[in-house]
Design a protein that fits this description.
By secondary structure, the protein is α/β, with parallel strands linked by helices. Helices cover 35% and strands 22% of the residues. The two termini are 28 Å apart. The protein binds 6-O-phosphono-alpha-D-glucopyranose.
């Protein structure tokens, strides 16, 4: 996720800002930039070290704003890197988030004579402020007006060349921390770049604006009403701050689930018409309507996302779907033609096997699509069109929030393709409403994490685990087992519940626990029979089931309750307790949860 950092004080702002960017690097980014009223703007695609190379003698000035960009709109190029300025190069903005109504605003501004240099949503902001300053040359007032016009999410820092001491920061849905020093003040996306200077911080709330000079910090609502807020003392280390106060990135990323779903959905649903609006597919929308078949490719967790996607897409779009491991597909002679969609799912967008599958598909004439989290990555560039996840960077090697966003994106794609075919508007509306209700339900699950932790501790001495599920939750049996084995190093197996009797049941005894994913859906009765089979062999069973289902108690040793949603979306909720269970299980064993042995986050080799 983008990182912002700003400074106003007495010291060498250039050095402080570059240092601050370095401590924000962990967030993941693709370009960097800095603006100081006394030195101008410098940007570089690639790492902060590239930016450093461009300023060998340092920079002049005692204030400035800086940014690490994780691309959302526009390729990760130097032009698209922040800060962005208006026409006159006097107003400068760094921004983390998405301005949803940027197209309308841009058109209006273009009509008023503004020219734009980048393809970012952010660039409208300095132009908008500039436009308001034409009527009344008051930087603060103009900024408030502009903030009231934009819609979407932002953590922002804004500077005006002619008032170099002043920084304006604003927050809506993307975090902003103000650091209060002696004769100096800071703005950042999280506390990590601030902590080496001061431990006194103020967290902005959504809809708040801070106006800072070296000695003053004032907080206002968007209506310019003053807000009184006490500073807090942070006793975290920089490393803990980067993890948002959580012990591991994996836990932080699981906890981000609700925002991840919100970000994947943002601006993409028209619930009353039962439609999904996917900008990245617009240019191939016509061709998509003519497609006859979908093949999904992915590796690891992304492959399991595909398996759930298969059920969604077949049920609601009527298109036949197959799911393939990238590592198998590329060595076969797949039968494809120009009526086949080859859909790659990849968090990193760099997984070699998935990429090669896409290249092979292209050679054979398929229409290639991507559900990719990393903007500008190779798969995102090489596919014909796609849907970005907007989940922000994932740092823990074991994929968690990326899967939540992949499943959400697959549901959007299902509405998109379904509505081009047989799906009724009412059906699209029902799915859209259920999608919009997911974040709150994930929050409810996250609140039960202490109970999940206690359960994980209880089972942490187990040497084996079986996970079973059916239909929409079939793939979660494999994903649940994968999470456990990759970070706990114990033997865990996933199995379609109906297949148990063909082998895995032989392993079951009183020391071999099973986690049964058994929400009250269309295959619930079947799952109950499978649980009975295990119980008859004295196997302990943890059931993951629908909130309020007490019937299952007599059959199971422990229960994980999950709120209900429509059947096709239930995996998006069910996966969260599975991730938490694996996390606490590995933590209890004292293992390096974020960096499991022998594994890599991005597998760019065969
Ligand atoms: C690695 C990671 C997994 C991930 C898989 C696919 O094995 O450890 O978490 O699911 O690669 O990666 P991708 O970036 O293509 O989603």
């Amino acid at each position: 996720m983008c990182g912002i950092f700003a400074y106003t004080g007495e010291k060498d702002a250039g050095a402080i800002l570059i240092d601050g960017l370095t401590s924000l690097e962990y967030r993941g980014y693709d370009s960097a930039g800095i603006y100081l009223p006394d030195s101008g703007c410098i940007k570089a695609a690639g790492p902060v070290s590239e930016l450093r190379k461009k300023i060998p003698g340092g920079l002049k000035g005692h204030s400035g704003i800086a940014h690490l960009r994780w691309a959302t709109h526009g390729e990760p190029t130097e032009e698209n890197a922040h800060p962005h300025s208006g026409e006159a190069g006097e107003i400068w903005v760094v921004h983390n988030g998405i301005i949803e109504n940027f197209k309308e605003l841009k058109e209006k501004l273009q009509k008023a004579g503004h020219t734009f240099k980048s393809s970012t949503d952010t660039e409208v902001m300095p132009h908008l402020i500039e436009e308001h300053m034409k009527a009344e040359p008051d930087f603060e007032k103009a900024t408030f007006k502009a903030l009231n016009e934009i819609r979407g999410t932002y953590g922002m820092a804004i500077q005006y060349k002619n008032e170099p001491d002043k920084i304006i920061a604003a927050r809506m849905g993307a975090p902003v921390v103000i650091g209060l020093g002696e004769g100096e003040n800071f703005v950042a996306s999280d506390a990590s770049p601030i902590l080496r200077h001061t431990r006194q911080v103020v967290y902005l709330h959504d809809g708040e604006v801070a106006v800072l000079t070296p000695t003053i910090h004032s907080i206002y609502t968007l209506d310019a009403l003053k807000v009184e807020r006490q500073a807090e003392e942070v006793d975290w280390s920089t490393e803990v701050a980067q993890k948002g106060g959580y012990e591991h990135f994996m836990l932080k990323e699981i906890m981000e689930g609700p925002e991840v779903v919100e970000n994947t959905l943002r601006g993409r649903l028209i619930p009353e018409q039962g439609l999904a609006r996917l900008g990245g597919l617009e240019r191939v929308a016509g061709r998509l309507g003519e497609m006859e078949r979908i093949i999904i490719v992915g590796c690891g967790t992304a492959y399991y996302a595909g398996l759930t996607g298969e059920y969604m897409l077949e049920e609601f779009s009527g298109l036949p779907v197959e799911v393939e491991l990238g590592s198998e597909f590329r060595y076969r002679k797949p039968v494809l033609n120009n009526r086949t969609i080859l859909l790659a799912i990849s968090q990193s967008g760099e997984t070699a096997d998935t990429l090669e599958a896409i290249r092979e598909g292209k050679r054979r004439g398929a229409l290639t699509l991507g559900i990719v989290n990393t903007v500008g990555s190779t798969i995102a560039r090489e596919t014909d069109a796609g849907v970005y996840n907007h989940a922000g960077p994932e740092i823990g090697v074991a994929s968690t929030k990326a899967l939540v966003s992949q499943l959400t994106a697959l549901a959007l794609l299902t509405i998109f393709l379904g509505r081009q075919r047989t799906m009724a508007a009412s059906e699209g509306s029902e799915i859209a409403a259920a999608l919009l209700a997911l974040p709150e339900k994930i929050r409810m699950i996250l609140e039960t994490r202490e109970a999940i932790e206690a359960m994980a501790k209880k089972y942490a001495a187990s040497r084996d685990f079986l996970y079973i599920g059916r239909k929409y939750n079939y793939s979660l049996a494999f994903e649940g087992a994968l999470k456990l084995k990759e970070i706990s190093y114990i033997h865990a197996e996933g199995c379609g519940a109906g297949e148990m009797k063909h082998g895995p049941l032989a392993m079951i005894d009183e020391n071999f626990p099973t986690l049964a994913i058994a929400p009250q859906d269309s295959v619930y009765e079947k799952m109950l029979s499978n649980i009975q089979e295990i119980k008859a062999r004295k196997g302990p069973v943890i059931a993951l089931t629908t909130e309020g289902n007490t019937d299952i108690e007599s059959l199971t040793s422990d229960i994980l309750y999950v709120p209900k949603t429509i059947e096709m979306l239930q995996p998006i909720l069910n996966v969260v307790p599975l991730q938490l269970f694996a996390y606490y299980f590995a933590k209890e064993k004292g293992l390096n949860v974020d960096r499991p042995r022998n594994l890599a986050k991005s597998v760019t080799v065969e």
